[in-house]
Write a structure and sequence with these properties.
The structure is a single chain. This protein is α+β, with helices and mostly antiparallel strands and 361 residues long. The chain is 61% helix and 18% strand. The chain is built from 9 helices and 11 strands. It has helices spanning 5-22, 97-102, 107-123, 128-133, 135-150, 169-241, 246-260, 274-307, 317-351; strands spanning 23-26, 30-36, 39-44, 47-50, 56-63, 67-70, 74-77, 83-94, 155-166, 270-271, 356-357. Strands 6, 7, 8 and 9 form a 4-stranded antiparallel β-sheet that branches. A hairpin with a 5-residue loop joins strand 7 (74-77) and strand 8. Helix 7 (246-260) runs parallel beside helix 9 (317-351) and helix 8 runs antiparallel to helix 9. The chain starts with a helix and ends with a strand. Mean pLDDT is 76; it is low at 293-319 and 350-361.
């Protein structure tokens, strides 16, 4: 005999199983597509949801968060017929689970193929140099094309990035040589600019130095000329103040002549023509003083002879001394002239050049 509690237990288990199969808990940022008898009915949102067991079933589950898809390196031909390998990184997000499940069979493969074809169209209109320097432009154009196409698939492409662009090895080597040449060129230009600036600064410094030295020499020459002018003026004033006569000037002139032959550079010396005139002036001057004393002596002698031998007087000692001094001075002047001529002859004999007298014009 069957226990009546057993059917109740079986019914309870079936009810619990049916209740559990009717409950669907969807996690956050997930979406489940529900089909009823093979036809899409609705999409379950995150949280607690109920379905009809045996009638409704979950067809596809989608993650609504942003995804990253990395494609394989794809060979692309540039406008200048160079093959480069390009890696792309795609950031996408599912916005419509129904379209992602029913509008395209495999949306990842479709996005990959669409990225490759769009990339080839974009790179095919650029040369290698522009391709390497226009990543932002390539990313923008790729994103625009992919976003327009994948919009009907319920997918939004947020960002497309070019991860790597690998040109052929020969092109890499040529580019490295070009970059090295450009760096050497810039270095040479900078070095030349530095040399130019250095020479300009040195020239400016030398110019300023020359200007300052010239100004210093000018000021020194002006000061020397002013000093010499003041000295000559003072000597001239002293000569006129003391009322020097021609005899004194001639005698000082004779005293100055021996100093002209002194010095190492005096290899050739000209005897001035006014030397004889100066000697004559001195000789006449002293001879005149002697003559003034002689007449007085002779006159006194005649007077004594006329008076007779009444008185015998000798010559005046003062007058005879002055006359003798005048005669001695004249002789000394003549000897000075002779010594000066001897010095000149010796100087000419020592240097191999004879003194040439300069005549009066």
């Amino acid at each position: 005999m069957i226990d009546p509690a057993i059917p109740l237990i079986i019914l309870a288990v079936l009810f619990v199983g049916i209740a559990l199969s009717a409950i669907r808990i969807v996690p956050q940022a997930r979406a489940y597509n529900i089909e009823r008898f093979g036809r899409y009915t609705r999409t379950l949102n995150p949280g607690l949801n109920f379905i009809i067991p045996g009638v409704d079933r979950v067809n596809s589950k989608f993650d609504l968060r942003e995804h990253v898809f990395t494609s394989r390196p794809q060979p692309v031909i540039t406008e200048d017929n160079l093959v480069v390998n390009i890696d792309t990184v795609l950031y996408y997000q599912i916005t419509q689970p129904k379209a992602a499940a029913y509008e395209v069979a495999n949306f990842l493969q479709a996005i990959d193929q669409l990225t490759v074809t769009t990339l080839r169209n974009v790179i095919g209109s650029m040369d290698l140099e522009k391709t390497l320097t226009s990543r932002e432009e390539i990313n923008t154009r790729l994103r625009g094309v992919l976003d327009d196409t994948t919009g009907k698939w319920g997918i939004r492409v947020n960002r497309v990035e070019i991860k790597a662009i690998d040109p052929p090895p020969t092109i890499k080597e040529a580019m490295e040589k070009q970059m090295r040449a450009d760096r050497d060129k810039r270095a040479a230009i900078l070095h030349a600019e530095g040399e130019r600036q250095s020479r300009i600064l040195k020239a400016e410094g030398a110019r300023q130095q020359a200007i300052l030295e010239a100004q210093g020499d000018q000021q020194a020459a002006i000061l020397r000329a002013d000093g010499e002018a003041k000295a000559v003026e003072r000597v001239f004033q002293a000569v006129h103040a003391n009322n020097a006569d021609a005899k004194l000037l001639a005698y000082k002139y004779l005293e100055t002549l021996p100093s002209l032959a002194q010095g190492e550079g005096n290899t050739f010396w000209v005897i001035p023509g006014e030397l004889t005139e100066a000697v004559k002036n001195v000789s006449h001057a002293f001879a005149g003083e002697a003559a003034q004393t002689r007449p007085s002596t002779e006159k006194s002698g005649r007077e004594e002879s006329e008076r007779g031998p009444a008185e015998l007087t000798g010559p005046d000692p003062a007058q005879s001394a002055s006359a003798q001094a005048a005669v001695d001075a004249a002789e000394q002047a003549e000897r000075a002239v002779a010594d000066a001529r001897d010095d000149v002859r010796r100087a000419g004999a020592g240097t191999g050049s004879m003194p040439v007298p300069r005549e009066e014009p």
